[in-house]
Design a protein that fits this description.
The chain is an alpha/beta fold. The protein has one domain: Rossmann fold (3-Layer(aba) Sandwich), CATH 3.40.50. It has 5 helices and 5 strands, in the order βαβααβαβαβ. It has a 5-stranded parallel beta sheet, with helices on both faces. About 8% of the residues have low confidence. InterPro entries: Rossmann-like_a/b/a_fold, Universal_stress_UspA, UspA.
Length: 148
């Protein structure tokens, strides 16, 4: 049923839980997981220890720092996969609008399911469901699962 699963990550606790759910479902259905993280300055600040919604410094992180923080997000999810002994996993780290890039990847690999955290690092931009997750759920051509 779920042979191609996309798991959207932002470094939050909910996205780590989404990764675990994705690996569990892929193991159950004999599927593959593609992890995707679309890095931004706010994500980089969070990954290096800032409080969600606040900037760690007056200046924005450099492109290299954003890339490094993005890779850390992917590496944390890959560690979860290794702990679960799940090996059919790949990663993507495009740049752009998160929802657009996630939906594009899902279309490219003919995903059966997109999994994301219900709310991630978007702060108070959305009261119940994160704005990226809302857009994914509204525009996806496949099933979506929002992890709480």
């Amino acid at each position: 049923m779920f042979r191609q699963i996309v798991v959207a990550l932002d470094g939050s606790k909910k996205s780590k839980k989404a990764a675990r759910v994705g690996f569990d479902l892929a193991k159950f259905y004999g599927g593959a997981v593609t992890l995707i993280h679309v890095p931004h300055a706010e994500t980089a600040a969070f990954v290096v220890g800032a409080v969600s919604g606040y900037h760690a410094a007056i200046t924005k992180p450099t492109f290299a720092e954003i890339e490094e923080a993005g890779q850390k997000v992917l590496d944390e999810a890959l560690k979860i996969a290794a702990d679960l002994k799940f090996t059919d996993v790949s990663t993507q780290m495009p740049h752009g609008d998160a929802a657009t890039e996630i939906l594009l990847l899902a279309d490219q690999i003919n995903a059966d399911l997109i999994i994301s955290g219900r709310r991630g690092l978007s702060g108070i931009s959305s009261l119940v469901l994160g704005s990226t997750t809302q857009r994914i759920n509204h525009l996806a051509k496949c099933a979506c699962l929002s992890v709480v």
